[in-house]
Amino acid sequence: MEHNDPSLGTPIEVLLLILFGLLIVFYIFAGWSSSRKEHLRTWPIYRYILWIFGILSALTAIIGPLANRAHHDFTAHMTGHLLIGMLAPLLMALSAPLTLLLRTLPVKSAKVVTQLLRTVFIKRITHPIVASILNIGGLWVLYTTDLFAFMHNNILLFLFIHFHVFMAGYVFTIAMIYVDPVAHRYSYIFRSVVLILALSGHAMLSKYIYANPPLGVLQEQAETGAMIMYYGGDCIDVILIFILCYQWYISTKPRESFKWNPSA
Amino acid sequence: MAKEITGNHVKFAKRNVSAGILFGLGFVAFIDETVFHQLLHWHHFYDQSTTEIGLVSDGLFHAFSWFATVAGLFLVADLRRRQAFWLKRWWGGMLLGGGAFQLYDGVIQHKLMRIHEIRYVENVLIYDVVWNIIAALMIIAGTIMIASTRSQLRGVFNGT
Question: What's the mean pLDDT when you consider all of chain B?
Fold first, then answer.
């Protein structure tokens, strides 16, 4: 592949590193300070871990050796895509940052945040179908047009697309499984059907990429990359499916013992 | 399991079958992916002859079967906590679901939509025949198993 190597200039890299570092610091601080309030339970350790690993996996995709290789190696790009578009959003969604924010903020500010969550915009984009189109549709646009080639020649476009991939992945995750409060709760069956359709769109795109490499990607790399997308996607999807089914299972818990007793 | 058929088994009789169908379908797809794609390398990830509808069908079934495996197992957990798990009906459903998917894969996806062959050899016909006969046998066996539980179903209704 012929690209002038637009590896992230050091100032931008440092800036991103500080930004991501701050996200971790804020989270830990919020967890610690809210846990000191008497009426609140201690914020669980596993949530801190989820958040930190979520941030780190997003960071891995845009800074460092994997990110540098991603500019000329499609398999590295696809691994990064799995990290920033699927794994990081899942881990971060499970760490319930919004719940943490709401319990840390003073009541007045927390009310402002909940009002923001009820805005039409948030309601629209967290609708399972809209979130799926933003996520999977965005990927189809990226890989089936020349956008993918442009991305590697323009650092701002590179960052914007990665930000979009992450946000779309995050919105998609919180539209499918409810850990944090949401504006509107859709039924399990509805979310399941939309999830299956979205995942199949992801699988179809993988095979499409296998057969039709994006501009500037070698056939061999496209084939390996497509398989990383397909099977790597499956690995993360199964966690998403498991959590959705588990929440469904818990919500249908029978209220009393179902032991049938005809003589009673 | 389910030596004694109670009212809960009857009440959730259908759910036992659908739990089996979902898991069977997912399980066969999983075997297909691990054994024939990954271990034996008989199936190809993608075949140039694949039709557009083949790509769509393959993607849909791939996602659905992944979901069905997990959902099917959660349904088993649900039946167990309701003390309504009926092993024979579940097995019947599993064979039915697995066989139906295998037949669909073998006839529609492999042959009509041309997504890939079972194996890239000269005489693939023998593979196709064996594949689809196994599928048909699974469907028949599953149907017989489900049907054989009906007498027990009626027995409980009549209070015998």
Answer: 86
Question: Average of pLDDT values for B30-36?
Answer: 84
Q: Is residue B1 part of a domain?
A: no
Instruction: Please report residues of A whose CB lies closer than 8 A to that of B83.
Output: 258-259
Provide, for chain B, the percentages of residues in helix, strand and coil under a 3-state DSSP scheme, each rounded to the nearest 5: 75, 0, 25
Nearest to A204 among B45, B56, B67 (CB): B56
Q: Cβ contact (<8 Å) for A211 and B78? A: no
Q: How far apart are the first and last CA of chain A?
A: 77
Distances from the Cα of A23 to the Cα of A17, A96, A122, B22, angstroms: 10, 14, 22, 42
* Closest C-alpha to A133, from A168, A104, A174, A161: A168
Q: What is the pLDDT of residues B64-110, one digit of tens each?
A: 999 999 999 999 999 999 988 999 999 999 999 999 999 998 888 88
Q: What φ, ψ does residue B108 adopt, rounded to 5°?
A: -75, -55
With beta carbons under 8 A apart, name residues in chain B contacting A260. 6-8, 11
Is B58 inside any structural domain? yes
Smallest Cβ–Cβ distance between B7 and the set A199, A204, A262 belongs to A262
pLDDT digits (tens, 9 = 90+) for A62-119: 888 898 888 889 999 999 999 999 999 999 999 999 999 999 999 999 999 999 989 9
Chain A partners of B82 at a C-beta cutoff of 8 Å? 254, 258
In chain A, what are the domain boundaries?
A: 10-246
| Residue B18 belongs to some domain of the structure | yes
Q: How far is A230 from chain B (nearest CA, A)?
A: 10
**CB proximity list for B46: less than 8 A, separation 6 or greater:** A207, A210, A211, A226, B116
Name the residue range of residue B67's domain. Answer: 7-153
Yes or no: say if A207 and A233 are a contact pair by the CB < 8 Å rule: no
Task: Name the pTM for this structure.
Answer: 0.89
Cα angle A102, A131, A76; round to 5: 100
Residue B82's contacts (CB-CB under 8 Å, 6 or more residues apart) are A254, A258, B8, B12
Q: Give, in degrees to the nearest 5, the angle at Cα B89 between B88 and B93.
A: 120
Q: Do B81 and A242 touch (CB under 8 A)?
A: no
ipTM (interface pTM): 0.87
User: What pLDDT digit, counting tens, does each position of A2-32 carry?
Assistant: 444 455 567 888 899 999 999 999 999 999 9
In a domain, B2, yes or no: no
CA distance to partner chain B, nearest, from residue A118 (Å): 31
